[in-house]
Amino acid sequence: xxxxxxxxxxxxxxxxxxxxxxxxxxxxxxxxxxxxxxxxxxxxxxxxxxxxxxxxxxxxxxxxxxxxxxxxxxxxxxxxxxxxxxxxxxxxxxxxxxxxxxxxxxxxxxxxxxxxxxxxxxxxxxxxxxxxxxxxxxxxxxxxxxxxxxxxxxxxxxxxxxxxxxxxxxxxxxxxxxxxxxxxxxxxxxxxxxxxxxxxxxxxxxxxxxxxxxxxxxxxxxxxxxxxxxxxxxxxxxxxxxxxxxxxxxxxxxxxxxxxxxxxxxxxxxxxxxxxxxxxxxxxxxxxxxxxxxxxxxxxxxxxxxxxxxxxxxxxxxxxxxxxxxxxxxxxxxxxxxxxxxxxxxxxxxxxxxxxxxxxxxxxxxxxxxxxxxxxxxxxxxxxxxxxxxxxxxxxxxxxxxxxxxxxxxxxxxxxxxxxxxxxxx
Length: 426
Fold this sequence. Notes:
Blueprint: H1 4-14, E1 18-22, H2 23-38, E2 44-49, H3 56-64, E3 68-71, H4 74-82, E4 90-92, H5 99-108, E5 111-114, H6 120-129, E6 135-142, E7 164-165, H7 170-179, E8 184-190, H8 199-216, E9 223-227, H9 246-260, E10 269-272, H10 276-279, E11 283-295, E12 298-303, H11 307-310, E13 321-324, E14 332-338, E15 347-355, E16 362-365, E17 386-390, E18 393-398, H12 403-406, H13 420-425
Keywords: Pyridoxal phosphate
GO molecular function, one term: diaminopimelate decarboxylase activity
Pfam families: Orn_Arg_deC_N (PF02784)
């Protein structure tokens, strides 16, 4: 728990509400995740999912621990290069890669997992232009995960929109097209699905990838990429029980690989791409109470933050929160915490029971590290700055934005210029 004086000093430094990154927690999460798999399987690579939170300071922290960069856009790819990541340590995924993106990644030696037929043509073009180079790529595979008529995909979707479908022959067709050019080799399979995150689903994904790899790639199978989406540590406020641990996932996945691929001359590399499980509980959001008012018997606490800062995906779970007051005699009560936007639905908390804060007090929301910094629009106010705890020091990992940074003149036109038609009418 932070003291009021500590939070007040940090806010004075930021001149705003702010995110607080705990690098020790981030490091601990990565090391526990990596150890869970590497202690059970020899060849393991962990690629941090940039899209979950591509704060450069956080990415650098993870790269120094040995994490690869898993990116899904040219923007993220270029960021990884800017951070000094070796191109061979970048995994390029995602459903939309341009020909230029693919050519650059292949030229630099990054691992590219293809998602659709639109990405195959650029690979073939590049390979024909570089016959001396062995062009290694992976394929994202799409297969049915439904069991007993129930789909484990998020939001209840029955069919995933990603990858090459096995059942309708598209996966086999992609392999045939790539095999037509002698210096192209499909080196691995990518099986990321957005699911309910159960251990059973990961076991199912791992088994199908292994069987497809044996049947279609044989001894050329260099890697199995399971993807991400694993649960990490969850707060009690989520009300979830029996959540799998890193060890639960690792035991299930590695056991499948060893069993299914026992007869191969060498086991393939196992690639994992965690995001939420590493950063979610490593970031807190600190906002200050601006006003407290009552409307027809309902108490509203206005803060200088927004639900977009803590739950941009609008999930239904209540984040853990601490109320840090100036008074030791704060009374208990029920209230709603609302944000600075003009939207009625901007509730950070609804019907919350606890200490009733006063203007100037602080609320600290935990478990705020996943998607909040990347999926958080600069809507009405600038994006909050980020402080990072590094040992005993607290550094500014992202400053508060200025108007010039919010609306850079290099991007926006500020002077209205009448068109020729309007000039003619005068």
